[in-house]
Amino acid sequence: MSTLAVERIKLTSTRSPWWCTVLALGATAGIAALFAGLAPDDIELDVAATQMGLQFGMMIMMVMAALAVTTEYRFGTIRTTFLAVPSRPQALLAKTAVVGLVAGVVGLAAAFLSWGVAVLLRPSVDLGLHTAADWRTVAGSGLTYLFAAVLAVGLGILVRQSAAAVAILLVWPLLLEQLVMLIPNVGLDIQHWLPFTAADRFVSMTEAVPQIPYGPWGAFAYFAAVSVAVLVVGIVVAQRRDA
């Protein structure tokens, strides 16, 4: 518990996590407000449409999660952490738990804030959470943010460099996973098994699609497994090399 308390203090005593939280909430709610307020009446507005900005918020929280690790390597404070907690896995898992919990709470708040803003701006549209899919679309964002942060921490441990980690975290989901589908014949099949595509389908999939080899919860399980695998590899590598 003391290790968790230390990691909480380290995270909340710097400005970047607070700024990332504000930006994530502002970006998601702002995009929802723009879409709900400016969308013409002939465009159908549903619960999923209120969550259009969640990917941008998730990117911001992933950057925060990666910086929580890479800044320690940059300034050498990770050595002090490992001296205070001789078990490197314990220290890194504590950091992951704190960062992941914060990201999950922010994701949940961002999703409900975006939905609430859309409800206020378009009271004439039925945006009630009537089905399990509607609840998964909104409440499920907390889970995707949490495991996205886990993946980002693992990547930060592996890369160590802030600029490189941030670049990978932005280019990977926003560009690389979209370009894969352009590969002739096999592009779409490969894209099904890319982690951020699976995360997006967890919150957006409303019904079983024959071409997709998993359902919504299968997509979430796959994304969580990939995130944990990246973290495990990062911890193994951290144990074998100098801080």
Automatic annotation (TrEMBL):
Signal peptide: none annotated. The chain crosses the membrane at residues 18-40, 52-71, 92-118, 138-159, 166-186, 219-238. The keyword Isomerase does not apply. This is ABC-2 type transport system permease protein. Keywords: Membrane, Transmembrane, Transmembrane helix.
